[in-house]
Amino acid sequence: MNFTTDSYQDQLSSQVPEPYASRIFRLVLYAIVFVLTVGGNVLVCTVVINNRKLRSMQRFYYGYFLMNLAFADLAVALLCIPFTVVYYETGNWPFSAFMCKLVPTLQVTSVSASIFTLTVMTYERYQAIVQPLKAQIPKKKVLTMLGMAWIFAFVSASPEIFAYQFHDNASQKFQCRELWPHQKYRQSYTMFLFVCTYLFPLMVIFPTYIKMMSTLKKSHSFNNTDKKLRWKSLRVLIAVVIIFATSYLPQHILFLAMDFGSGLSFPYFEITLKYCYLMVWVSSCSNPIIYGALDDYFRDKYARILRHCVAVKRSTKKLSRATISYSQGTLNPQKSSPTEQTLEKERIPRDQSGRLEEISSPQSNILESYSANNDKNDFKQVTPLLGCSDT
Q1: How far apart are CA 103 and CA 124, in angstroms?
Q2: Going by C-beta distance under 8 Å and a sequence separation of 6 or more, which residues neighbour residue 387?
Q3: Which 3 state secondary structure label does DSSP give 176?
Q4: What integer pLDDT is reported at residue 376 of this predicted model?
Q5: C-alpha dist (Å) from residue 269 to 13, 93, 272, 276, 380
Q6: Alpha carbon separation from 133 to 4, 127, 128, 139, 221 (Å, rounded)
């Protein structure tokens, strides 16, 4: 995720200011996308962790790929959205010189990890559909490939460590800018990111999916259940790849125009760039929605987790009301007359040692009755989230 560079700062100063309504609208969308991305991808990780079936050979280790993609999307949300918003909206980098180098590097790493994970998933699907007679990819190899995807992603982002510099300007605001020894270096790196983290992976992925779809339609080597399972996973991955391709294309075009053309002469360049960032982040929040919309297994697990959360919330509220009622009854007991107190004492039985036996208060009887009636219904739902597993 590139920030504005020092060499273009003078040209950016001539940009048309963003209208106030547009800024508010954009920031509201940023907030919505952030919440959906974090919440949705945490939900995906919860489903995968709580269900061994998704991580088994029976589902082709489907869960490991989706969880790896969810980690990358979470990293995009946590590393890109907050830092980019603070820097662009305030014009100041308040974090530190170390963070100035770390954050942009991790931003590019997380974005690159997404497309590399999709490439690995494509390879695994190709093996399962086009070459089903070959031995399935073992779990160890799957995890190794996913680890390599992150390593390649970090290597792709490593030039950011050396390019970004932290300094203050005349207005006493700290800047975190991408400074290259020569413009050609920046152009080379921009082209490298476009080719290696966008163009080339998609040139491999799309023809491969076309081949898989053709093979699956003509194949008679799968029974109906296997064919439906393969079609389902293929349909989900195609949707994810299409969303990724369309979301990232405007940003790549904008940076190519900025580095190789006269993109900055466009007076609305900076406003357009901010909305391009929004499109990139929408890609990260859309994946959990795609899983739920196209995969009935995920849809069922989403519903179970949400029902569980609602049940826990209701049970907690009921228990809280019962506790408050008991506390109020204890603090404000009804007063009885001296005669009633004497008669009450005479009715209290004594044990063999002559001590008064314990008498439960009316409030405790109410609470015990409440617990007995609800034990099998409400409190049954108050179980750890891991209890949702059907493993």
Answers
A1: 31
A2: none
A3: strand
A4: 43
A5: 11, 21, 5, 10, 57
A6: 51, 9, 8, 18, 10
Sequence length of the chain is: 391
Cα distance between residue 25 and residue 377, in whole Å: 45
pLDDT tens for each residue of 249-274: 999 999 999 888 876 778 888 899 99
- Gap between the terminal Cα atoms of the chain: 40
| 254 contacts 192 by C-beta, under 8 angstroms | no
Whether the Cβ atoms of residue 286 and residue 254 lie closer than 8 Å to each other: no
CA distance 119 to 133: 22
Pairwise CA distance, residues 55 & 62, whole Å? 6
C-alpha span between 171 and 146 (Å, rounded) = 45
CATH for 4-311, among 1.20.1070.10, 3.90.249.10, 3.30.365.10, 1.10.3720.10? 1.20.1070.10
Flag the least confident range among 58-62, 185-189, 319-323. 58-62
- Inter-residue contact 55 to 63 (CB < 8 Å): yes
Q: At 356, is the secondary structure helix, strand, or coil?
A: strand
pLDDT tens digit string along 301-323? 888 888 888 877 677 777 777 77
Q: Do the beta carbons of residue 49 and residue 302 sit within 8 Å?
A: no
Give me the helix-helix angle, 97-129 and 200-218, nearest 10°: 20
d(CA 389, CA 391): 5
Contacts 24+ apart (CB under 8 A), 161-165: 161/101, 161/105, 163/189, 164/3, 164/100, 164/101, 164/104, 164/105, 165/100
DSSP state of 60: T
Residues 36/84, Cβ–Cβ less than 8 Å: no
Task: Please say if the pLDDT value at position 143 is more than 50.
Answer: yes
